[in-house]
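User: Sequence in, structure out. Go.
Assistant: Echoing your sequence, followed by the structure tokens.
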Amino acid sequence: MLMKKSKKKKKLLRIHQLLFLIMLLIVNSAAWFIYVNTVENTMNVHVKAWDVTFEAGDSEIVDTIDVAVDDLYPGMQNFTYNLEAHNRSEVSATVTYEILEANILGDVIYTVEGRNAVGAPVQTGDITSAELEQQLAEDYPFTISFGLTNALMNSGNGRATYSVNVVWPYEQGNDELDTEWGINAATYKSTHPSEPSIVLRIKIKITQNAS
């Protein structure tokens, strides 16, 4: 009789242990699912805040940013970088930007503005920031585009958002170009695993307007 009770207790204990393991597995799986989705939904969205306040004698405020895209491949998750500028000053201001250079899979393209920014002589073949912006939007199977919500920031509470977007649809209509650049991107990443696939150096300038 005692042996039967002992066997029953052991059996119940094993069932409880099994149920506990199943519940633990379900909870951990759910937590991992939430974690993965959170990371995937936020990994390519970057936001930087920039408060602008002009001091006596200031006429403009400049910030140089490096925007890096880690991975590049057909069907990649859309990449977005936002710089949110807030004008806390008592005067309105105008926002402009210049692309100083672009590093695409190790191929660096310098602009005239980029050379001027570091005091280097302009080289034959250098293009302007506007020309590079058009090239980045049109000459690759992926699209690199730039946006500015407001060129004019009002005094006190004016704000503007500068954005950089990189999009490479899985099927964009040119399989040959997708294949060529897809192989280039994969080769570059395999030989430079710690380097981003794209780096854009951009100068944002906010100029105080005459009162």
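User: And one key feature?
Assistant: The chain has two domains: 1-42, 44-208.
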